[in-house]
């Protein structure tokens, strides 16, 4: 892969608020960010659009991409449910002169960090507790109790990887977490941002 801008990874257990943080950062023009859309073999949920939320593909299409070494990283997150980052997606955004931001799971985030240690800022978003996470996931009411319990069990394992990331943002208060994330990314990409009073 050709080198380009910076890579900014946000990883966290499901329900930690990382997607909210990533959306906030994408709305800050001075950071010059573009979102890396992941590929997945899972079915669409609700109003999700192909190419905007994910690149949706069948399991066999996904496996073909693995065989052709098209992924920067990929993982079977749950049985028969694959997620991955296409190399072509990152190269497309780098060609546009953008810094690329990822909202991906912990394993994928650490894999990208390992491949591009110099260009990557890896941030772990920490929820107040696993119990709080369960409450947040239930509030979403998009998944069954079994799926929620699976995510909660996975969250305990994921929380243990936090020290392997460059930075940890504790999402106990969303406004503070958003400001911390903005500051962190701005410093990393060399952008100046308004002070908290001006925001």
| Helical run tally | 7
- Oligomeric form: single chain
Broad structural category? alpha/beta
> Going across the major beta sheet, what is the strand order?
2-7-1-8-9
What's the β-strand tally?
Answer: 9
User: The biggest beta sheet, please?
Assistant: 5 strands, parallel
Low-confidence stretches: none
The domain count comes to: 1
- Strand proportion, as a percent range, falls in 15-25%
Mass-distribution shape: globular
Distance N to C terminus = 37 Å
- What fold name stands as the CATH topology? Rossmann fold
What portion of residues is helical? 25-40%
Helix-strand pattern, N to C?
EHEEEHEEHEHEHHEH
- Mean pLDDT score: 91
The CATH class: Alpha Beta
* CATH-defined superfamily: P-loop containing nucleotide triphosphate hydrolases
Radius of gyration: 17 Å
CATH arch. level architecture: 3-Layer(aba) Sandwich
């Amino acid at each position: 892969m050709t080198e380009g801008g910076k890579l900014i990874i946000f990883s966290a257990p499901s329900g930690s608020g990382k997607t909210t943080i990533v959306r906030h950062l994408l709305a800050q023009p001075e950071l010059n960010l573009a979102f890396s859309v992941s590929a997945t073999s899972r079915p669409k949920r609700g109003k999700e659009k192909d190419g905007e939320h994910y690149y949706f593909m069948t399991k066999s299409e996904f496996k073909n991409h693995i065989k052709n070494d098209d992924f920067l990283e990929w993982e079977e997150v749950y049985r028969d449910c694959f997620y991955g980052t296409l190399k072509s997606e990152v190269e497309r955004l780098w060609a546009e002169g953008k810094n690329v931001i990822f909202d991906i799971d912990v394993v994928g985030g650490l894999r990208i960090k390992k491949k591009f240690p110099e260009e990557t800022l890896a941030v772990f978003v920490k929820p107040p507790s696993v119990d709080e996470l369960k409450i947040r996931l239930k509030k979403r009411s998009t998944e069954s109790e079994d799926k929620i319990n699976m995510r909660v069990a996975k969250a305990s394992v994921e929380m243990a990887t936090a020290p392997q990331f460059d930075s940890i943002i504790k999402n106990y208060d969303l406004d503070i977490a958003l400001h911390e994330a903005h500051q962190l990314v701005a410093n990393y990409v060399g952008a100046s941002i308004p002070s908290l009073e001006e925001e």
